[in-house]
Amino acid sequence: METAAKCAWIFGVWNTVVLAVLIASAISGGTPSVFMWVRAGILIAVSPLFVRLARAAERGSTAALGRLRMVASVLPVAVIVVDFIPGVAPLWYALLQGIGSLVLVPVAVIAWRARREQPGA
């Protein structure tokens, strides 16, 4: 789970970089949509939750492990699918968000493997 916590932390850092790029785009005359601002803010806001869930799962919390497994499995797919709907976001933004979300794939793999390693699972 230590690796899962590190990946969750990287997810937060990456999304902070995405927000910085979004700010730079707006300053340089770009026109980021409300969707882009909201998505960037939400992904940064949930990042500490992922780290917290990974740490709790590391301490043996099965509830945290289940939540981490579910979110880390669904979120990357949801982000990629929504961002690549034509007209929702520019390609550069979709790529940045997609790359950042892929960092959660190892978290999902670790969480699913941890479930199988638990007694009675």
TrEMBL record:
Q: Which UniProt keywords apply?
A: Membrane, Transmembrane, Transmembrane helix
Residue ranges of the TM segments: 7-28, 34-54, 66-85, 91-112
The name this protein carries in UniProt is Uncharacterized protein
Per the UniProt record, the source organism is: Humibacter ginsenosidimutans
